[in-house]
From TrEMBL:
Signal sequence bounds: 1-20
Keywords (A to Z) from UniProt: Signal
Alphabetized Gene3D superfamilies for the sequence: Dipeptide-binding Protein, Domain 3, Glycine betaine-binding periplasmic protein, domain 2
Tagged with keyword Manganese: no
Protein name: Glycine betaine ABC transporter substrate-binding protein
Domain ABC-type glycine betaine transport system substrate-binding stretches: 27-308
Keyword Signal in record: yes
A Pfam short name: OpuAC
Length: 334
């Protein structure tokens, strides 16, 4: 269903933009989402659209649900650079079907990645820890720092969607029976802090995490193999649902992460839209960019300028030579 919506969106766009006589970019609002990778991409888009396409680009605060709703109902903002569509799939489908939204392309070419992870140095010492059976067999190697009589599994922070999926998989994998306690880290900072502390001390750690993130850019982690492959239907219909009564084991499916624009922007500025369709990052590259952001305490704008200055081999593939020359000129004046 979702793939059909994307294809329909692109076909509609091709039909409407093919007869566009001019490319009037004008004022463009870009959603600056409240996590680092999305903020970085938003600032990169602002720089390229301003200096390469002569757009009057503006960043506005955004988040997944309110941004997608506003784009459908008010046709604002024009661009959501990093939309994790699993959380709002029905809403995006409706926007595409009503020709209010267009799916430009994958902002993360690998898709968002989720899983249960252990440090690579633990797997190097005992390769069985790369499997869930090995983890359960050696549960005592993961003592809870608050109570070493039980083992620690660090789940997703309360209130996040991944709290539901990680909790259901904790149950499906029978980790409590193996001696593990599900720990709520309280926040993203709490979860990343527990992992970074353990890694710096080469201590044990087992828990949920996702990519792209600075943590997985800085620390080598191994995703634990559940030995089941991916059952996407069961994940969507049960594991990701709070009402899941009989969770079964499945690996996390990749999360589609797209750049979404309003159809009005796609029609008004087809050349700028084409840029948003080409602009994409691998998880490995984004992990490294986010690690740099964290190490340098950089905000989205500073990180975007650093990316533009040092990664011409990447961004030059997203634009033609005329646009590239204009961007080069802007970079010389930074």
């Amino acid at each position: 269903m979702y793939k059909k919506s994307i294809i329909a969106s692109l076909m509609t766009l091709a039909a409407t933009s093919s007869f566009a006589a001019t490319d009037s970019c004008g004022k463009v609002q870009i959603a600056d989402m409240n996590w680092n990778s999305a903020s970085l991409i938003a600032n990169i888009d602002k720089f390229i659209l301003e200096h390469g396409f002569d757009c009057d680009a503006e960043l506005i605060p955004g988040d997944t649900m309110p941004t997608s709703t506003s784009m459908i109902e008010k046709s604002q903002p024009d661009i959501a650079p990093e939309m994790w569509t699993n959380a709002v799939q029905a809403l995006i489908d409706r926007g595409v079907a009503e020709k209010r939204l267009s799916i430009a392309g994958r902002s993360l070419s690998d898709g968002g990645e989720e899983g249960f992870w252990v440090p690579k140095y633990m797997v190097d010492k005992d390769p069985s820890l790369a499997t869930i059976e090995g983890i359960k067999k050696h549960a005592k190697e993961f003592p809870n720092p608050e109570d070493d009589s039980v083992s620690a599994f660090y789940g997703c922070p309360a209130g996040w969607g991944c709290q539901i999926s990680s909790g259901n998989l904790f149950t499906a994998l029978k980790l409590e029976e193996a001696g593990f306690e599900l720990i709520d880290p309280g926040s993203s900072a709490g979860l990343s802090g527990s992992l970074s502390r353990a890694y710096e001390r080469e201590e044990s750690w087992f828990g949920y995490y996702w990519a792209p993130t600075a943590i997985l850019g800085k620390y080598e982690m191994v995703k634990v193999d559940f030995g089941t492959g991916i059952d996407k239907d069961h994940y969507i219909n049960c594991i990701a649902e709070n009402s899941c009564l009989d969770p079964k084991v499945t690996m996390y499916p990749p999360s589609p992460v797209y750049t979404v624009t309003t159809m009005a922007f796609a029609k008004r500025a087809p050349l700028a839209y084409a840029y948003t369709a080409k602009r994409s990052f691998t998880n490995a590259k984004m992990n490294s960019l986010l690690a740099w952001m964290e190490d340098n305490q950089a905000d989205g704008q500073y990180a975007a300028e650093n990316f533009m200055l040092n990664n011409k081999d990447i961004w030059s593939k997203w634009v033609n030579k005329d646009i590239q020359a204009k961007i080069d000129s802007a970079l010389e004046n930074l």
